[in-house]
Each structure stands twice: as structure tokens, then as C-alpha cells.
Write a structure and sequence with these properties.
The structure is a homodimer. The first copy, chain A, contains ten helices and no strands. At the A-B interface, α1, α6, α7, α8 and α9 of A face α1, α6, α7, α8 and α9 of B. The structure holds a DNA duplex.
DNA sequence: GAAGTGTTTGACCAGACGGTCAAGATCACG
DNA sequence: CGTGATCTTGACCGTCTGGTCAAACACTTC
């Protein structure tokens, strides 16, 4: 799959610079909308130099997605089946919301890819992602059976959490167009809203 | 703005055919990813013929977005400030979910546009959309004041409804990769989940 | 400081893409 | 059925874009 880790310090530095520039460009224009010239300019390198480090436009995109997938799913793994159900889930919601605020580019990169049918990461979704989600869904189902959580479909619960939190990154312009915040203050209101909302909906009767 | 309505029956038919084909192509590839050749092929017309009806690729895209915006927002207008708060909102959620199932292309078209910064419809968001949302948010706020709805931030409530419902259209491949439904059965579970979820979260204590 | 490896780039290419144009086909209507 | 307006298309154009290549440059090691 991925080629062996970069060896020289120059390689390491430039690969990082390129991936960062590519994240910026891909996330705002989509794969097809991004050009190598844009990425090269953002990275401060020449186009042929880009292609010296990554063989093709595709290779950059794939490297980005693969490198980010794990980071992106990490919070889900941290849900502790031994913890208090409602608080574990609310904490997960808030963690995801924080990521939407702090890493909107990463969120939009995935959004772009998935909206267009995930042509490049479908395998990862059907494999790694499905396995992890199914596992966590089973843990949540157990909580429901034990009566420690309001009765909910675990899969759809997870989808709703992804949707409500990533919305603030993916649909940022729309949210901003409506709320007109100066900076990221609206994330405070979102935090409060989502915490209260999920706590109400998940606390067993 | 838009040129006068089509006159001849051929014009009417072909404009419709083109917009339908363009919806298909733009929604799956994004603006930049779509080509006039693809749209022409999908419409069963030659490329120059496309450009006879719509002067440019941009014109097709804009015509689509403008034509769809109203349909897309219609359900929000139907929330009746004189109705029963919780049921009005739950009905809105289910209506939006139904649209995600029946018109996923329209949803993805907007998603594509907004994720990439809404370069072509920012004005509409800042104008028409903001006005309507603010109006409806005020009505919801009134319900909260009257104690007929659990205390929630109306704007963020609306965002959450958009997010949770459109998720099933925009992130369709991801949902399908995880749930592996044969057709659209999973929308039944989603309906049940969202109805119960919003009812629990919105019913005043 | 020579030699070999790793890095950078200007010039270039082939294909794709949005758009034009002039000529031909078809339609509406008196 | 003739004639003007509407509709359709093959051929073509300029630009953009992903990618190549050979030559130049830099860095490390002995």
C-alpha cells in the first residue's frame, strides 16, 4: 500500500508541507476542482517537485485520506463500555463538535469524498469503518438492554451524532450566513444545545 | 436574472431534459467534476445543443440551484405557528427525511455547493434563507417561552434537523456501507429513530 | 574535492474541456 | 407549399491540466 516512511529530513519536511497544502486545497475545491498548480503554490514548491514526492494527484489525495481516517475515528474508539452511558455519549458528541471546530478542513475533505460516492475510500468504509461502528453499536445496544439508556437504534444514533457535529464544519458557510458570528462563538451555543439535547433524549425514563 | 420562461414546446421539453441530466451529473461529480459532454450524453443531446439552451456551464448550474431552492425550503415554511409545537416539529423532521429519501440528488447538489463554500449561492443564503430561518426561529422561541417546548436554541435545533435528515442523502454511501440495506428499508428505522428522538428531546418536562 | 545520491526546475506534451461558428435540418404558420 | 424562425450538429479553437524529462543544483560521505 503506502510506500515506506520518508527517510531523509528533507523528505519528511516536504511531505508534510505538501499534505498540509493539499488538505487546504482539496477540502475547499474537492478532488476534481483542485489543481496541482494550486497545491504547489500553497506548498511553496514547483509542480514537478510535488510529483517527485507523490507520484500523482491521486497519490496525494489517497495519502491524505488514509492518514486522516484514523485520527477521525479515534474519538469513537474512546467511548468506554464500562463508563456511564449517557455521559460517555454526550462526551463523544462534544468531542466530535470540538473536532468540527478545530479541524474543519479534515471534515470537509471527507464530506467532499463521501458526497460524491466515496470513489477512493469505499473499501475503507466497507471494512475498517463498518467493523468499528458495528462494534460500538453492539456496546450501545447492551446499554439499552440494561435499561441504562433510552431505547434507541444504536446505528442511527451514531449517524445523528456525526451529522449534527460535522454539520458545523461541512456547512460552515451556511451556518455563518444565518448566525453571522464574528469568530467561533456560535460553537458555544452549539455545545450547550447538543449537550442538553442528547442528554434529554438519551436519559432513560 | 433568469431569461423569460421558455416559449415553444421544444424549448420547454429540452430545458427540462437538460436540467434533469445536469442534476444527475452535478450532484454526483460536483460542479468542477462534471463535464458538458457528460451532461449532453445524459440528456441525449449534442454539446453545442446544450449551449443553445443554456449559454454556459455556469448558467445550467445556476438555473438548477435557483429552481430547487424554493422546493427545498418549502417544508420549513409549512411549520404552523398555530399548531402543536412538538408535533409540528416532528412532522417537519419526517418531511425532511422523506425528501432525503425521494430527492437525494437535490440534497447532494446543495451539499456539494455548500461544502465548497457556496461560491454560487452565497447571496441566496445570506438573504432569502437567513430571513426565513430567522422568522421560523422566532416562532419556535415563542413556543419555548410559552413552555410548550423544552428549552432549546431554535437556530441550532433547525441545524440539527437539517443535519440529521440530509445526512441520509448526502452520506448515502457511508450509511449503506455500514448498514448494507437492500433498498431503502433503513429509512424506516431512521424514521422511527428520529421521531422518537426529537419527541423525547422536545417535549417539555 | 570528487563522486554519488538526493532534490529542484524550466520546458514541454497529450488529452480534456468549455465554448464558438457556420451550415444544415426541422418546425410553425400563412 | 413556401418561407422565416427555430433547432441541431460536425468541425474547430484556445486554454487548462496532469504528468514527463533531461539537465542543473545541493547535500553527504569518504
Amino acid at each position: 500500500m503506502t510506500t515506506a516512511a520518508p527517510q531523509t529530513r528533507i523528505q519528511k519536511r516536504n511531505r508534510e508541507v505538501i499534505l498540509n497544502a493539499a488538505l487546504e486545497v482539496f477540502s475547499t475545491h474537492g478532488f476534481r476542482g483542485a489543481t496541482l498548480d494550486q497545491i504547489a503554490a500553497a506548498a511553496g514548491l514547483s509542480k514537478p517537485n510535488l510529483l517527485y514526492y507523490f507520484g500523482s494527484k491521486d497519490a496525494i489525495h489517497i495519502a491524505l485520506l488514509e492518514g486522516l481516517m484514523e485520527t477521525w475515528l479515534a474519538p469513537l474508539k474512546e467511548i468506554d463500555p464500562k463508563g456511564e452511558p449517557v455521559e460517555e455519549l454526550v462526551a463523544y458528541v462534544l468531542h466530535k463538535l470540538q473536532m468540527a471546530r478545530d479541524f474543519p478542513r479534515e471534515s470537509r475533505l471527507f464530506a467532499n469524498e463521501i458526497v460524491q460516492g466515496a470513489p477512493r475510500i469505499a473499501p475503507q468504509i466497507d471494512g475498517l469503518l463498518k467493523a468499528l461502528v458495528d462494534e460500538k453499536a453492539a456496546e450501545i445496544a447492551r446499554w439499552v438492554e440494561e435499561g441504562r439508556l433510552a431505547p434507541v437504534d444504536p446505528h442511527h444514533l451514531i449517524f445523528s451524532i456525526w451529522a449534527t457535529t460535522q454539520h458545523y464544519a461541512d456547512f460552515d458557510v451556511q451556518v455563518r450566513g444565518i448566525l453571522r458570528p464574528k469568530g467561533t462563538e456560535h460553537f458555544d451555543a452549539a455545545t450547550e444545545f447538543l449537550a442538553a439535547f442528547y442528554r434529554r433524549a438519551l436519559t432513560p425514563a
